[in-house]
Amino acid sequence: MPATINVNGRITGEREAVVPVLDHGFLYGEGIYETMRTYNGRVFLYDRHVRRLRNSARLIALDLPFTEDDLAAQVRDTVAAAALGRAEAYIRVLVTRGVGDLTYDPRATPRPSVVIIVKPQVDPEPSAYERGVRVVIVDVVRNHPETVNPMIKSNNLLNSALAMQEAIRRGGFEGLMRNYRRELSECTTSNIFIVRGGVALTPPLSSGLLPGITREFLIEIGRDVGIDVREEVLRDEDLFAADEAFLTSTTREAVPIVAVDDRAIGSGRPGPVTRRLLEEYRRRAQAG
Ligand code: PDD
After folding, report:
1. What percentage of the chain exceeds 90 in pLDDT?
2. Is residue 97 domain-shared with residue 134, that is, in the same domain?
3. What is the pTM of this model?
């Protein structure tokens, strides 16, 4: 099903939706975004996504041209226009620096562009959850936090695209990146967890990664269901020696990782801690 797209308040089909070539999002990748999804037609964890969008905007010195209520109304209208029926919505909100002359000077672009893309949410294949997936550790290094900080959910995604190209060439479901200190950071569009001795571990923000909303929510779930979920610096050998591993994102929830490169992780099958956290995540997502 094609996308329904809102460009600065005008909702159209994907063929009619256009942004000018002089938009600095196109010219320089200057912009930020969020990916959200619905469960039972309601956007899940909307407030957390807006909070992260605000933080991304602050980190690139961009004034968001809307209030939270304005944005919520635009998202609602775009989802309604998409008329997805029983399908859940995938929602991508982008805010770019806007249209202006060929200069990095932000005074050339007084009005940010706001785009909302709505499509049906496509879940990973059931086999990804039942049998688990293989990821590869890629040679592309995650951005140094003093370059384009991975904290910023930025439209400037060349680093991630190159990492995913490598993962695809090597047949990986995802590409796992290390930071410049060779610590594990995150995958191209998801965060990473391992399980060791019943404790779930995920790299800390100081390893240079996006503070995933799913990651944050799973840390809270762990606390509630009695699974210790902690941040810890992780390296390749921690992953290879793990009992279980999984990746998390809004669109993929928690997907078990059963192999990394050519090595099996744990038993080579999805493990009980991953299953328990996924089960509870889904229960809360369905409950809204
Ligand atoms: N990706 N790390 C990166 C680099 C990401 O792009 C994402 C999200 C995540 C997980 O974050 P969250 O749990 O908030 O979705 C981690 C989205 C889904 C995307 O790129 O569309």
Report:
1. 99
2. no
3. 0.97
Q: Where are the beta strands (DSSP E) in the chain?
A: 4-7, 10-13, 31-39, 42-43, 89-96, 113-120, 133-137, 175-178, 184-187, 191-196, 199-202, 229-231, 244-249, 253-260, 263-264
> Residue 1's pLDDT is what?
79
Tell me: do 138 and 250 sit in the same domain.
yes
- pLDDT tens digits along 157-195: 999 999 999 999 999 999 999 999 999 999 999 999 999
Probe residue for ligand 1, chosen from 43, 149, 189 as the CB with the greatest number of ligand atoms within 8 Å: 189
Instruction: Report which ligand 1 atom has the smallest distance to the Cα of 92.
Output: 21
pLDDT tens digit sequence for 129-147: 999 999 999 999 999 999 9
pLDDT for 51 beyond 90: yes
Tokens encoding 64: 């968001």
Closest CA to 200 of 217, 175, 179: 217
CATH number of the domain residue 132 falls in: 3.20.10.10
Whether residues 195 and 57 fall in one domain? no
Structural domain span for residue 70: 4-120
Domain count for the chain: 2
- Using the mean position of ligand 1's atoms as its centre, give its distance from the Cα of residue 108 in Å: 30
Please report the atom of ligand 1 found closest to the CA of residue 210: 2
